[in-house]
Design goal:
This protein is of the alpha+beta class. The protein has 3 domains: 86 residues, Acyl-CoA dehydrogenase/oxidase, N-terminal domain (Butyryl-Coa Dehydrogenase, subunit A, domain 1); 109 residues, Butyryl-CoA Dehydrogenase, subunit A, domain 2; 138 residues, Butyryl-CoA Dehydrogenase, subunit A, domain 3, CATH 1.20.140.10. Helix content is 44%, strand content 12%. The protein is built from 11 helices and 7 strands. The strands form 2 sheets. It has a 4-stranded antiparallel β-sheet with strand order 2-3-7-6, with no helix packed on it. A hairpin with an 8-residue loop joins strand 6 and strand 7. Helix 8 packs antiparallel against helix 9 and helix 9 runs antiparallel to helix 10.
């Protein structure tokens, strides 16, 4: 890959820098943003996505025919760099843009693409992901939510769990078992489900941070049209794996951790150290910070390989598990170092008047384990890497 930017790419950078300077409210990048509740942050992300969409800055890697910019690899790199530089917030419909849209483009009928894709980009319709179940988390293919044919509909009964923002979602990508006699990786059908359908109940799950971004979702005699199948009947596992590959390819991108590392280095220059100086003056602290920076850069460059696959028209491959595993584990180590640097200040909760940086580091530490579970646990990723990347024999 050639990382020298052409005049056209530099013009693209200038375009996005100019747009951000005019359109991004300074409060979005402020530390106070992290002090808000999950619901407030969601509303800010929603407003931000609508602004981005108005400027045609959502899903820039998507084909132009579906509302994207058909961005090249380096244009995507530039976009991520500039968003990270200003520490821009995320978008509300992240699952829709990151997972659902690309899966629809790959597997959907033209009618489905025209119906759903424009409203994913504009955030008119928010999406959630109905995969995990009680007892079917790491072993996703053992799912038991049933969809039984009834004329032109399926009747769905079952339960999903850890469903992010289901309480704010309009639609759900739902894995169901349509042939209980088939082997567990077969007989699964991938459905697009309207969350306003009668029989759906959403119950929030409160996290250790106090937020309730995750939910349990119950389906009781929920009727879904057969036209809402994505892919083919009983062959939904292939579609589900495509979604997972997009998820893992995006979760691990190092761009997200670069601004966090800049903040952590800044913190090290302010926190008191045992010898009467600040932590940054300690050589061992600087070595640990540099090691984390090296890993962030390695993660970022590995992520470019997944972008290359997608731009060549293929879904991400199993190497996405490398990015997901490395990125989620690295995020935990960054949070751990922050807690060590803070020492006794690490015990102060978010919003405490005595906490450094308003206590945002303690909140990050509490939530850092999240990404080692979401999108497939670290143990699952290691299994995929050993099996499909390294070709190791199954033990």
């Amino acid at each position: 890959m050639d990382f020298h930017f052409s005049p056209q790419e530099e013009a693209f950078r200038q375009e996005i820098q100019s747009w951000l300077a005019t359109n991004m409210p300074p409060s979005y990048a402020a530390d106070a943003f992290e002090e808000r509740s999950a619901e407030d942050r969601f509303d800010i992300h929603l407003a931000w996505q609508k602004q981005l969409h108005a400027g045609n800055w959502v899903g820039i890697h998507w084909p132009k025919a579906y509302g994207g910019r058909g961005a090249t690899i380096l244009e995507q790199v530039i976009y991520a760099e500039e968003m990270g530089r200003v520490h821009a917030p995320g978008i509300a419909n992240a699952l829709g843009v990151m997972l659902v849209g690309p899966t629809l483009i790959h597997w959907g009928s033209e009618e489905q693409k025209q119906r759903f894709i424009p409203k994913i980009l504009s955030a008119e319709e928010i999406w959630c992901q109905g995969y995990s179940e009680p007892g079917s988390g790491s072993d996703l293919a053992s799912l038991q939510t049933r969809a039984v044919k009834d004329g032109d509909f399926f009747v769905i009964n079952g339960q999903k769990v850890w469903t992010s923002y289901a309480h704010r979602a309009d639609w759900c990508i739902l894995l169901t078992r349509t042939d209980p006699t088939a082997p567990k990786h077969q007989g699964i059908t991938y459905l697009l489900v309207n969350m306003r359908t009668p029989g759906i109940t959403v119950r929030p799950l409160v996290q250790v941070t106090g937020d309730a971004e995750f939910n349990e979702v119950f389906f009781e005699d929920v009727r879904v049209p057969k036209a809402n199948i994505l892919g083919e009947l009983n062959r939904g596992w292939q579609v589900a794996v495509t979604t997972l590959m997009f998820e893992r390819a995006n979760i691990g991108m190092g761009f997200q951790l670069e601004p966090v590392m800049r903040q952590l280095i800044g913190l090290s220059k302010r926190v008191p150290h045992y010898n009467g100086t600040v932590a940054w003056e300690d050589e061992s602290v600087r070595q640990r910070l540099v090691q984390l920076l090296i890993e962030v850069q390695a993660l970022k460059y590995n992520g470019y390989r997944n972008l290359t696959r997608q731009l060549h028209g293929s879904p991400p491959g199993p190497e996405g598990s490398l990015a997901k595993l490395a990125g989620s584990e690295l995020n935990v180590r960054i949070a751990q170092l922050a807690m060590e640097l803070l020492g006794p200040y690490s015990q102060l909760a978010l919003g405490s008047p005595y906490a450094l940086d308003s206590g945002k580091w303690s909140r990050r530490a509490l939530s850092s384990r999240l990404m080692t579970i979401a999108g497939g646990t670290s143990e699952i990723q290691r299994g995929i890497i050993g099996d499909r990347v390294l070709g190791m024999p199954k033990g």
